[in-house]
Design brief:
Layout: H1 6-20, E1 30-32, E2 35-43, H2 47-50, E3 64-68, H3 72-78, H4 95-98, E4 101-108, E5 118-123, E6 126-127, E7 129-134, E8 137-143, E9 149-152, E10 163-169, H5 174-180, H6 192-205, E11 227-228, E12 232-237, E13 240-251, E14 258-268
Antiparallel strand pairs: 1-12, 2-3, 2-4, 4-10, 5-9, 5-12, 6-11, 7-8, 7-10, 13-14
Helix pairs in contact: 5-6
Amino acid sequence: MSRITPLSRRSLLKGLVGAFGLPAPTESQGLQLSGHDWTIVSFEPGEGVRRRAFAGNYPIKEAIPAIVPGDVHWDLERIHKLPDTYYGLNAKEAGWVSAREWWYRKAFSLPSEWKGKTVWLRFDGVDYLAEIWLNGHWVGRHEGQFTPFEFEVSRHLRYGGENALIVLIHPVPRSVREQLNKWGDPKLFHSQSGEWDLMQAMRPAYPCWKSMTSAGWDWGTKIISMGIWKDVRLVTSGDVYFSNLIVQPQLSPPYSKATLLIQARADVKK
């Protein structure tokens, strides 16, 4: 079976544009926001919003360096706030991390030629429940470790000055945290029944796809991963922006022809 090439994808988009009488989409540009110049800081659950960490009160002096893509535990290990979690029983010392909320911050500037364009903030993967602010404005919320997501942020951007992107990673749900607290008891650290108690608590607590293998099983460390674990970028578009393109081929013998069912989201700037 032949696969769809990039050229034929463009042809499909042009067909959609023609079918709906939309102006032709323009080539998008991108700005990579991933890198080693992020910071993170933690609060007790709910405290960050109360202190308005999403605006001018982000405690930059208390923050530590962070890498995106990455994980909060890795950042803490690099500055020796956590021991090597894969050595001995060190994992039991990391339970406090997932009980707190973690706030990422990234400062960036924009090219002047982007002015007047539609700009999208795109996340390839955040673990697990996140809220996003840009220059003090709430942008949106997303749940699910493995699902990419994006927001249109044109009206919140600054040109000729610094922009501040804030990402809040929420702590683990209370039911999971209660099971994690058991691992502070040496008698329960190797308990097989306690192992399954944790897994059973995680299943209903994470309805939108979350890796559970890092939190248990008999061969794994009991750590709940959290952080921006895939790339973050800004992309521009013109008056028309297509996303979520799904092409479903329908085939039948002798497989010489196919019917394509095409589904896409079209955002049109009026």
